Amino acid sequence: MEGDFRGVVGRLLELARIDRERRKAKGWWDDYTTLGVMQEYVTLESAATAIKAWQPAYLPGLLQTPEYVRGVRGTPFGATKPARRKGPDEEFVTARLARQRRLTSDPPLALKAVLYEAVLRNFPGGVETARGQLDHLVKMTDLPNISLQVSPFTGGTHQGLNGAFNIISFAEPGAMDVVYAEAAFTQSWIEGGEGAAAHNELFEMIAERSLNERESLLFLHDLRQEL
User: What is the pTM of this model?
Assistant: First the structure.
């Protein structure tokens, strides 16, 4: 019994060490001051093997076109208030595109995204941005490591509508999932335990109540024809 306990403690200490190393990791993101509070997230994303993303308001950054990013940055209540920006918008766009290379790297990051219908009907940047972004989403669904579902208005209300969250998973056996949650002007982290488990359950519930991948692709095609 004592040996088992020591083994568990040793494994937890090792996971804590790995987590510290992830957060201290150096990479391309260190050259981009515009990342701000997102720098810690990008560090973990770069080490992840899979991400589940629920978005009730904006497209996940990994799926945004440059025009969409510029549109969001140009709105008063976008990801960052204009008055508080720390660098040129084009640097932010470049950093966003650099993040997206994880989707086609070797091995690629597995992304399972569920988007609320409102996300697809409220494009910053106008009609042309919407058309280009919808075309890009359709193209990205061709990648085997990307799963995209649409949560329609008819799916009803649920706790996920309170805010966006990403569940970040890693390759190490037994490694804890890390949840990054967003609300207006604030971010929070949940590492493992009941909190991460609850978010996983919520994500799966939302996915079950959403259109499946084929239905979601048809939804994107139909919406594109409306523009």
Answer: 0.82
